[in-house]
Automatic annotation (TrEMBL):
<feature type="domain" description="Ketoreductase">
    <location>
        <begin position="7"/>
        <end position="187"/>
    </location>
</feature>
<dbReference type="InterPro" id="IPR057326">
    <property type="entry name" value="KR_dom"/>
</dbReference>
<dbReference type="InterPro" id="IPR050259">
    <property type="entry name" value="SDR"/>
</dbReference>
<comment type="similarity">
    <text>Belongs to the short-chain dehydrogenases/reductases (SDR) family.</text>
</comment>
<protein>
    <submittedName>
        <fullName>Beta-ketoacyl-ACP reductase</fullName>
    </submittedName>
</protein>
<dbReference type="Pfam" id="PF13561">
    <property type="entry name" value="adh_short_C2"/>
</dbReference>
<dbReference type="InterPro" id="IPR002347">
    <property type="entry name" value="SDR_fam"/>
</dbReference>
<dbReference type="InterPro" id="IPR036291">
    <property type="entry name" value="NAD(P)-bd_dom_sf"/>
</dbReference>
Length: 246
């Protein structure tokens, strides 16, 4: 299922966690993957080595999605070489938790810049390339924090809620051009992203989940791959929860 042969996919935050699982899934199913990452060169190198058999179809680029000019420059080079793109997965994300009253402006701004403005900028430049061929799939990774509101995550919740608003709007703007725009909303997923949780916190959060376990990056990737496939042709403007029932 989900054959991506001949498809070009851009994945942000491609080198670790959920983005890594998405990149592996796309590569295994035949896509060419253009993976953006932030600063962890070793993680990028590890993924490149792991995917050696798919090397001709994997391009990894260090590019801060919050840097508008850097993203624009990268897209210009991409368009000159590849003309169109089929799939964009807006997955890059960070947390900088602090109670709202104590949060400094930098933590507020950086989380908004990476998680929300990054999604805007990456999507803004992908859409014209998708319009050229009247086909595209945009999937952004939001979070139940957007509506549950976990303590200390005001910046993160605001950014993730913003992604949903952007998704619903963009979905309507491009619907007639056979471009679908959706979010997935993972619950607690076992990646570096929640690596700072203490054992006690992990136990508490696991109890909150009806399935009584955290999800895996591969489980989220499977849902993203479905939304990225041709089969998901009549699904747009939605948020797919992958939370174990949270
Ligand atoms: N894990 C969870 O429980 C969970 C739950 C709900 C939603 N999410 C969302 O899922 C997405 C992926 O999370 P994850 O758990 O896979 O996180 P992760 O393991 O920490 O991986 C994050 C990835 O994003 C990249 N990245 C960070 N900042 C970037 C930037 N400014 N520009 C480009 N790339 C950047 C990182 O690159 P470097 O390594 O180079 O920094 C890394 O490849 C995030 O949007 C997160 O909010 C996660």
């Amino acid at each position: 299922m989900n054959d991506f042969h001949g498809r070009k996919a851009i994945v942000t935050g491609a080198t670790r966690g959920i983005g890594r699982a998405v990149s592996l899934g796309l590569l295994e199913r035949g896509a060419a993957v253009f993976g953006l990452y932030g600063s962890d060169e070793q993680a990028a190198q590890r993924l490149a080595e792991e995917c050696r058999e798919h090397a001709p179809r994997l391009t990894l680029v260090r590019c801060d999605v919050a840097d508008y000019q850097a993203v624009q420059n990268w897209y210009e080079g991409f368009e000159a070489e590849y003309d169109t793109v089929d799939i964009l997965v807006n997955n890059a994300g960070i947390r900088r938790d602090q109670l709202t009253a104590l949060m400094d402006r930098e933590s507020w701004q950086r989380v908004l810049d990476v998680n929300l403005t990054g999604t805007f900028t990456m999507s803004k430049f992908a859409v014209p390339l998708m319009l050229k061929q009247k086909y595209g799939r945009i999937i952004s990774v939001t979070s139940p924090a957007s509506y549950l509101g976990f303590l200390g995550q005001g910046n993160y919740a605001a950014a993730k809620a913003g992604q949903i608003g952007l998704t619903r709007t963009l979905a309507k703007e491009v619907a007639r051009k056979k471009i679908t725009v959706n979010c997935v909303s993972p619950g607690f997923i076992d990646t570096d992203f929640i690596g700072d949780l203490t054992e006690e916190q992990r136990t508490t959060y696991r109890k909150l989940v009806p399935m009584k376990r955290f999800g895996t990056a591969a489980e989220v990737a499977d849902a993203i791959l479905f939304l990225a496939s041709e089969k998901a042709s009549y699904i747009t403007g939605t948020v797919l929860e992958i939370t174990g029932g949270l």
